[in-house]
């Protein structure tokens, strides 16, 4: 049975192909800024794919070549009451949490500028591949606010508190090469090659056991927050989940028969 994922809003498009769901933020006229309906649509998609094992990997990207996402919609924000701002911030933070806690691997295909919530969305992904012209930055302190969608926590865990403080305090925008050097992204490719490179990476990942991929993600995400021996105990439990799977038996069978395994995700 093929996956069935619908978007609540025309500002978020979803394409399903070969076990990959590609989620595109589609507001190019405002640099793919994230307004409330767009966030709610992303949350709904995350909730749906979480329970569709046919979706084995997700890619998030932005429409057009200019922007991945310019972050929170500042025009919408200017018209909000303080209470509405609180609702928005809660929603954008939970959106990034929804993305990060998806059981499937998530790749951010950073097709252009990613500022504020745009960088925070990329940080919620597992792997970040950027076009050479892309730029990233947690620029919120320019607006007398702070990264409120997980950026203070995820950036400091990814690149270290010292570098995270420098980028957040300065609100500096870094180009793709610098982002690669500091460990903010995994890869830089020419703009025209971004999606082919992401598709190739997805294909490379999807050659491997779906249950193993999900268990590896789960135990890295949660284990990294704990001290070593608790993490190792978590790894042991995650490994246990893989042992009874038919895929594990299929992998050994395929090795013996010198062929590629056909995994079913169970
Ligand atoms: C928890 C999360 C918090 C946050 O994310 S706070 C927000 C952080 N993001 C930002 O501060 C980025 C704000 N935008 C910009 O700095 C610039 O834009 C860019 C550098 C992204 C692009 O600059 P340029 O190439 O000169 O284009 P342009 O004329 O500024 O933008 C094109 C259209 O896009 C709209 N737009 C851009 N960013 C946003 C945004 N974040 N919210 C709402 N609209 C945005 C503009 O207004 C304009 O539209 P029009 O043509 O109607 O004037």
Automatic annotation (TrEMBL):
<protein>
    <recommendedName>
        <fullName>short-chain-enoyl-CoA hydratase</fullName>
        <ecNumber>4.2.1.150</ecNumber>
    </recommendedName>
</protein>
<keyword id="KW-0456">Lyase</keyword>
<dbReference type="InterPro" id="IPR014748">
    <property type="entry name" value="Enoyl-CoA_hydra_C"/>
</dbReference>
<dbReference type="InterPro" id="IPR018376">
    <property type="entry name" value="Enoyl-CoA_hyd/isom_CS"/>
</dbReference>
<dbReference type="GO" id="GO:0006635">
    <property type="term" value="P:fatty acid beta-oxidation"/>
</dbReference>
<dbReference type="InterPro" id="IPR001753">
    <property type="entry name" value="Enoyl-CoA_hydra/iso"/>
</dbReference>
<dbReference type="Pfam" id="PF00378">
    <property type="entry name" value="ECH_1"/>
</dbReference>
<dbReference type="InterPro" id="IPR029045">
    <property type="entry name" value="ClpP/crotonase-like_dom_sf"/>
</dbReference>
<comment type="subunit">
    <text>Homotetramer.</text>
</comment>
<dbReference type="GO" id="GO:0018812">
    <property type="term" value="F:3-hydroxyacyl-CoA dehydratase activity"/>
</dbReference>
<comment type="similarity">
    <text>Belongs to the enoyl-CoA hydratase/isomerase family.</text>
</comment>
<comment type="pathway">
    <text>Lipid metabolism; butanoate metabolism.</text>
</comment>
